[in-house]
């Protein structure tokens, strides 16, 4: 029996966090902001896990959205989410910067949970519905759903990089994953390179024919293309002009001792983000006297993330050791060059931090897009502020006017951070104007519209 939703989002998580018994709050983040209005307009539904293991919940309404919880057991969280998604796929898709774990038990759980999501979507979708599946945790869902419901139109978007064949081929279940994605009518990637990697792999591994963006799968055509995700430029641009944000930004600078340069990093605490590399570069600049004591402060905000996965536990220890060393060796009484905060902040505080920072340092070793870079740009209507950006972030494809770096090159990183700190106001405003033009025209709303237009064409 088909369901009643003509538009469905399927994602690992529902777009809400629990704030009390049966009380929910919309989760922060661009995806929710972009998709919530589409859902509300189209009477759609969102299928996802609600965040608590071993709990079954009935579908409920929140904020004009129909939400359909998918249950996960404690063990499935461990094997499917922390395991196959975050200890196998995440490192493999990010250039194997950590060693992926290949385990049949993790794969079995991944397949089982993907099947459950596909069944939930099949039950909720109205005849000929549009279903948009999100991200690496659910790559088998498109094919599973197509088997159950050949009538629906299926889109898939991968938020993280899609790796080159040399790496992807390591995966013992590479055929199954490619076939899973090929269940979709449209497979979206952050960069054209991701789409090209995928198309080449379909030819090489599955022997499929293709032309440009189209792959021929039996009697169907699957399109694979890039749709670079973005942020809500307009919302940030308005928010950051509000007096309480401006005042808070000034207060932050004062609390830091009004240094000449405030450098800022904002990331989930993840080994792909290059936090250690940027701290090393900053520490060396202090040690070799390129930055005078008290001249600059580095604020590193690191959101707690995946705290039960082993690599993340090790990363936290190593970053905290590094911060302690730099402050111990280069600091003075009452004056620490690195301010490290292992905490989450709300939109207002993040906006104030962006406004307070002279140099935003975004140095991932590999990143699907990196929204922090685009958020920073959205907040700098004053045309001040410098963006130091890794060439390995998806965002580098669009944000050509940033100060580009290779985060593996410590000397290059040091040089570029200094160049950004010493840049003239004229140079900064010229760069920022062009960066803002890009993010303003290609915002998150446009991203969702473009993807859905291509899916429904
Ligand atoms: P992430 O790896 O999480 O996303 P990113 O794109 O930078 O990386 O998004 C992080 C988001 O979390 C930003 O909106 C940021 O403001 C917020 N955030 C970070 N630190 C925070 C803190 N301390 N407190 C509160 N909020 C914080 C994945 C991919 C990316 C891709 C996005 C979207 O890895 O490459 O850009 O999905 O597709």
Automatic annotation (TrEMBL):
<protein>
    <submittedName>
        <fullName>Trehalose-6-phosphate synthase</fullName>
    </submittedName>
</protein>
<dbReference type="InterPro" id="IPR001830">
    <property type="entry name" value="Glyco_trans_20"/>
</dbReference>
<dbReference type="GO" id="GO:0003825">
    <property type="term" value="F:alpha,alpha-trehalose-phosphate synthase (UDP-forming) activity"/>
</dbReference>
<dbReference type="GO" id="GO:0005992">
    <property type="term" value="P:trehalose biosynthetic process"/>
</dbReference>
<comment type="similarity">
    <text>Belongs to the glycosyltransferase 20 family.</text>
</comment>
<dbReference type="Pfam" id="PF00982">
    <property type="entry name" value="Glyco_transf_20"/>
</dbReference>
């Amino acid at each position: 029996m088909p369901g009643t939703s003509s538009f469905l989002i399927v994602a690992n998580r529902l777009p809400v966090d629990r704030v009390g018994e049966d009380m929910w709050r919309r989760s922060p983040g661009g995806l929710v902001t972009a998709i919530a209005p589409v859902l509300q307009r189209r009477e759609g539904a969102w299928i996802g896990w609600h965040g608590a293991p071993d709990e079954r919940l009935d579908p409920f309404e929140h904020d004009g959205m129909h939400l359909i919880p998918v249950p996960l057991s404690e063990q499935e969280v461990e094997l499917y989410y922390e395991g196959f998604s975050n200890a196998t796929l995440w490192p493999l898709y990010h250039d194997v910067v950590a060693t992926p774990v290949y385990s049949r038990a993790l794969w079995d759980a991944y397949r089982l949970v993907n099947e459950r999501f596909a069944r939930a979507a099949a039950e909720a979708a109205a005849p000929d519905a549009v279903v948009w599946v999100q991200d690496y945790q659910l790559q088998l869902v498109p094919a599973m759903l197509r088997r159950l419901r050949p009538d629906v139109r299926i889109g898939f978007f991968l938020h993280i990089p899609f790796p080159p064949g040399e790496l992807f081929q390591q995966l013992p279940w590479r055929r199954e994953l490619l076939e899973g994605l090929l269940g979709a009518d449209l497979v979206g990637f952050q960069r054209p390179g991701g789409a090209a990697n995928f198309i080449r792999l379909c030819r090489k591994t599955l022997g499929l024919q293709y032309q440009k963006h189209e792959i021929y799968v039996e009697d169907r055509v699957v399109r694979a293309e890039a749709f670079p995700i973005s942020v809500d430029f307009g919302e940030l641009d308005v928010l950051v002009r509000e007096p309480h944000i401006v005042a808070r930004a000034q207060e932050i600078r004062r609390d830091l001792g009004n240094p000449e340069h405030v450098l800022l990093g904002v990331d989930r605490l993840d080994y792909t983000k290059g936090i250690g590399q940027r701290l090393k570069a900053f520490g060396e600049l202090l040690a070799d006297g390129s930055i005078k004591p008290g001249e600059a402060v580095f604020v590193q905000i690191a959101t707690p993330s995946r705290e039960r996965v082993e690599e993340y536990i090790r990363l936290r220890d190593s970053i905290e050791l590094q911060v302690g060393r730099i402050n111990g060796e280069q600091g003075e009484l009452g004056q620490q060059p690195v301010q490290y905060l292992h905490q989450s902040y709300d939109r207002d505080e993040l906006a104030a931090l962006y406004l307070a920072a002279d140099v935003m340092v975004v140095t991932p070793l590999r990143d699907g897009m990196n929204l922090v870079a685009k958020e920073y740009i959205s907040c700098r209507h004053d045309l001040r502020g410098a963006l130091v950006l890794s060439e390995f972030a998806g965002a580098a494809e669009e944000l050509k006017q940033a100060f580009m770096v290779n985060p593996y090159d410590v000397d290059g990183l040091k040089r570029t951070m200094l160049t950004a700190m010493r840049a003239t106001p004229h140079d900064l405003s010229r760069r920022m104007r062009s960066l803002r033009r890009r993010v303003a025209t290609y915002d998150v709303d446009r991203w969702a519209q473009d993807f859905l237009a291509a899916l429904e064409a």
